[in-house]
Amino acid sequence: MKILFLAAVSLALCAMPATAQDTRAPGVFKTGEQLYQSCISDVASDVKACDWFLMGAHDMAAMARDLGWIDRDNFCMPRDVDIVRLRTLAVELWRDNEESRRYSAVSATLNAITAAYPGACKTDQ
Contact 117/78 with Cβ under 8 angstroms? Predict the structure, then answer.
């Protein structure tokens, strides 16, 4: 099951330019709006779920970048960014751009990262 999920994600990431998706997300497990609501929730377990989702989406995108499935010139998050910072930047982007929440949660996360940290990694990242 895990391999099937990773294969599906991998195929989706292969087709992605710098922005993850430019059409509405039909038939996804979680939308950007659902993830946003978890991230801004007053319920600690919702925020924890948000954090775990963001970390997983980031790690999948980093893997795709490392394998050359995402252009290395368009995606890099500094190593010292922790999950609180990642959640903060994602929530800020999603709050300021409601339209960005219409995508799948993975695409919305990748779009938030690439918006916050555009361009290639420096040699020390």
Answer: yes
